[in-house]
Task: structure prediction
Amino acid sequence: MQGVFTGFATIAVVIGVGALLAHLRIVDLDAQQILSRIAFFVASPALMVITLSRADVHQVLSANLVASIAGVVVAAGIYVALARWLWHRSLGETTIGALSAAYVNAGNLGIPVASYVLGDAAFVAPTLLLQMLVLQPLGLAFLDADAHGRTSSLWQVVSGPFKNPLTVGSLIGLLLSITGWTLPSYAADPLRLLGNMAVPCMLIAYGIALRLGPGLGKAGSRAELASTSVLKMLVQPLVAYLVASLVLGVEGHALLAIVVTSALPTAQNIFVHATRYHRATVLARDTILITTVGAVPVILLVAALLG
Result:
């Protein structure tokens, strides 16, 4: 259990640094925008090249992936239905809300949790690849289409993600993993150094927004925030558990890994996307906060029941 607390404590400290810097007026919301842009255009793509180049892509075809997809589809699908029929959100707002309800923190939190709690960082690889290569490109395609103010053609939807630096970085990393190629040190070392900025930039920018933005639940719909939080913390891991255990027959430690991975909180980079496209930034921010805090008891409970 120490790995769970260590992962969450690390995130909390770095977010706290951002909030403290904002409180002391060392930085402002302009700084938060700059940090988010650096993370989006430079640091995160570099991180994806390095991370995915070392991932075992064969695990994408595992039961872990099937159960994870089920959890994502149900959680995101429920939110999309509510957003379109009840709250009448735009395409961009609906996209950010759906990602907030189903896109897990598989990187800077999932990797340490998989390493220390599950005993192998490879358990998070299928989810990481699914999100980077499928969910994120689709989400960014919808956000790009919404930002243009017109309905995109099929070619724009298909080609749009390949113009996004995060998608390009992910595809380069996947290509390196599949082919077994290794980047020379003069290319890998700078990428690794730039990639190391990604998580701190995201978390500090998030802390600044927490301190200087509207208070929790003071902007937007509290019912909508409650929906994204419940879908992420409870519905997604529950669906993954039911599919894995009842449909796929997964048992033991493998089942624990699937449920714990699905119970991870909403990823901070959803807030980066929301900020970049100016869509549902408060909903993304507050969902990340609630699910990050709430994931601790949820994962501990899952570990106690299935461990």
About this structure: The radius of gyration is 18 Å. The chain has one domain: 2-306. The mean pLDDT is 87. The first helix runs from residue 2 to 23.
